[in-house]
Amino acid sequence: MGSERMEMRKRQMSVQQETASAVQAPHGAGNRGSNACCFCWCCCCSCSWNDEGAESARRTSCDAKIEGTTNCEESLKPTVEEVRAWGQSFDKLMNSPAGRNAFREFLRTEFSEENMLFWLACEDLKKETNKSVVEEKVRLIYEDYVSILSPKEVSLDSRVREVINRNMLEPTSHTFDDAQLQIYTLMQRDSYPRYMNSSAYTSLLQLLSEQSVES
């Protein structure tokens, strides 16, 4: 009996030592290979989390750049002459930073802000020259505005989608040119006339006109 008790005690001590070593062992890269099956969370989930975190950071950076452009546009106060010019043509509205921002605010009320965001993203893409950055931005734009799974999907016809799919094989800064033109035309024909007749535009024009007279 004494020998059996001694043997059981040795086994218990051995198990306790192994458990303590496993708890104290750092979850570093050096331990991931040997503990891959035992420590699934640290070896699998944490790696997945890091990948998702990197993806989120890249997407946030891209979005922040577009938002930063918009913030600069918000700081620009248009003149009454500039606002009147918006009514002359859609091109004059879109060529005005303040005009783009005011129009974007209107699109938001119609739940079609993604059209302006897509157009701005394409403009930003055209300025990029680094090949790897271009490929990354193309992928993000596709996922955000072209994919049928995206809540911000823009309305594109089948022909343009086929062009995009071909272009995605070799992404460039002009991958979405046809799609950008189609969305530009859509905004020009559909949303622009409504904006010109909206209270948002007439109120802005009236406010600036009154301020101009007072000054």
Structure description:
With 215 residues, the chain is an all-alpha fold. It contains eleven helices and no strands. The chain has helices at residues 2-24, 29-32, 40-74, 80-86, 90-94, 97-109, 113-126, 131-146, 158-167, 177-196, 199-214. It is elongated and about 60 Å long. Mean pLDDT is 79; it is low at 19-50 and 68-73.
The succession of helices and strands, N to C, reads HHHHHHHHHHH
Oligomer: single chain
Mean pLDDT: 79
- Low-pLDDT sequence parts: 19-50, 68-73
Overall helicity = over 70%
- Secondary structure tally, helices: 11
Secondary-structure content class: mainly alpha
Molecular shape = elongated
N→C terminal distance: 106 Å
Q: How much of the polypeptide forms β-strand, as a percent range?
A: under 5%
Write the layout of secondary structure elements.
Elements: H1 2-24, H2 29-32, H3 40-74, H4 80-86, H5 90-94, H6 97-109, H7 113-126, H8 131-146, H9 158-167, H10 177-196, H11 199-214
Short description:
Helix content is about 75%, strand content about 0%. The protein has helices at about 1-25, 30, 40-75, 80-85, 90-95, 95-110, 115-125, 130-145, 160-165, 175-195, 200-215.
List keywords for this structure.
elongated; 215 residues; single chain; mainly alpha
